[in-house]
Design a protein that fits this description.
The protein is built from five helices and no strands. The chain is mostly helical and 109 residues long. The chain has one domain.
């Protein structure tokens, strides 16, 4: 189970990405959905920008079933604002609720 550290998921997410580079796509989509559609920040703005830049540089080498949802233009701009609710896979929408809940539990402890 990933838990927030210092009020966000920066460290847990970067640790997971270090273990499996392709998970950067999952975490980027998750963070984008939470930020733009749920108005919740799971990671710092700096980390999201960093993830976007890293993905842009290595985009052609990344493999993920939901990669087609992300464009290089989106990564260059550092935003997923153009994705609507139904664009996000169900797994992203459901998983986001888990992380939001854990983020708030972390703030209350």
């Amino acid at each position: 189970m990933l838990t927030p550290v210092d009020g966000n998921f920066d460290k847990p997410f970067t640790d997971q990405i270090a273990k499996n580079r392709n998970t950067i796509i999952s975490f980027w989509l998750l963070c984008s959905y939470c930020y733009y559609l749920r108005h919740e920040s799971l990671v710092s703005d700096e980390l999201f920008d960093c993830l976007s830049k890293e993905m842009l540089v290595s985009f052609d080498d990344l493999e993920h079933q939901h990669k087609h949802l992300i464009t290089k233009d989106m990564l260059g701009a550092g935003t997923g604002y153009n994705l609507g609710y139904s664009d996000y896979p169900l797994i992203v929408r459901v998983t986001s609720e888990y992380f939001i809940k854990n983020l708030h539990q972390g703030h209350s402890s």
